[in-house]
Design goal:
alpha/beta, TIM Barrel, 4-stranded parallel beta sheet, 16 helices, 8 strands, 13% strand, globular, adenosine deaminase, zinc, metal ion binding, metal-binding
């Protein structure tokens, strides 16, 4: 059995439609009252959107119900599915902790409560029955003020037992307007020894080369090989990995055909740039990581050798994977131990 690493999955977009529907039925029926049945809800929840901003609005639907009390419910079901159906050995969950706090509280109260959110997510992610190595990436957000985003960086630094890095999310167009803030915050994060990734070069509105030197991985990054291939040399020199999430680009209208990704993979392989294949929002897409692999193979975007290279890269660039080897090597060592010399009587 092959085991996989998932480096780019949002907590808000990870809840599959059926789980979310059942939760709403039991606890918040008003949120689904406009849908005739589950099929209508699933269609609404998973259908493609016209733009990234329209797509991101769906996150608010889930964020509103992911609270201190309910997060263990959602995380248990997320990990159960990831272990049983996706063969995940490693999972980084990313989210904005501030957006899981009650919005009626003051900003300072919500900042203080973020620590509890991180602890709840961390403890809920440690399940003996589904032994996946997990860690959190805390997302700053393009629609939150500087003070809150700095508090998120500080929170990550203070909770390294649960947190392996930081990110910035919230949409390309909003991030671009505040590029000086992001540079300052990422520079601060690096000074604290934090691992860094960031949503960048996902769409044509998010192409900000000034931020690239501060990132260890690049969230999406597909516009680099598509529009700015001259940057790939520097990306390779910095040993940066692209977190490519194939289904996302069809759901957000960023690409019209998945086969457009062939140029992304070809140029990255030629330039020596690593790619980790990810799901981004497995629930919103109603897909799982092995499907992303299969889809890329089916459309001849990559071959099996390249797929294995991407799978290896995911473990190699994982911020919190505790071993030098990926699971297949560890299992091979267990199943094929070195022969011992016979005892001489």
């Amino acid at each position: 059995m092959t085991l996989y690493a998932e480096l780019h999955r949002h907590l808000g977009g990870s809840v599959v439609p059926r789980i979310l529907w059942r939760y709403f039925e039991r606890h918040s029926p008003e949120l689904i009252s406009r849908f005739a049945d589950y099929s209508a809800f699933e269609d609404f929840y998973t259908r493609p959107r016209n733009t990234l901003d329209e797509y991101l609005e769906l996150h608010t639907l889930v964020e509103s119900v992911q609270t201190v009390e309910t997060l263990p419910y959602f995380i248990y079901r997320l990990l159960r599915g990831a272990y049983i159906f996706e063969n995940l050995a490693y999972l980084e969950l990313r989210y904005t902790p501030y957006l899981r706090t009650p919005d009626h509280l003051s900003q300072s109260q919500r900042i203080d409560m973020m620590t509890e959110i991180v602890e709840v997510v961390g403890k809920a992610s440690k399940l003996r029955e589904y032994p996946i190595v997990t860690s959190q990436i805390l997302c700053m957000h393009s629609r939150l003020p500087f003070e809150v985003n700095k508090a998120i960086v500080d929170l990550a630094a203070q909770n390294r037992q649960y947190v392996c890095g930081i990110d910035v999310a919230g949409g390309d167009s909003y991030s671009r307007e505040r590029i000086d803030e992001w540079i300052k915050l990422y520079d601060y994060a690096r000074s604290l020894g934090l691992n860094t990734t960031g949503h960048l070069y996902e769409t044509t509105a998010g192409c900000d080369p000034q931020l690239l030197p501060y990132l260890m991985r690049i969230g999406h990054g597909i516009q680099i090989p598509l529009l700015y291939p001259e940057l790939l040399k520097d990306v390779a020199a910095r040993n940066q990995c692209l977190e490519v999430c194939p289904t996302t680009y069809l759901k957000t209208g960023t690409l019209q055909d998945i086969r457009q990704l062939k140029l992304v993979f070809d140029r990255c392989f030629d330039a020596g740039v690593d790619i980790a294949i990810c799901t981004d929002n497995a629930g919103l897409h109603n897909v799982r990581l092995p499907f992303e692999y299969e889809n890329l193979l089916t459309y001849n975007i990559i071959n099996f050798e390249q797929l294995q290279a991407c799978q290896d890269a995911a473990f190699r660039h994982a911020f919190a994977w505790p071993y030098r080897q990926r699971p297949v090597s560890l299992l091979n060592g267990l199943l094929n131990p070195q022969p011992t010399k016979a005892l001489i009587s």
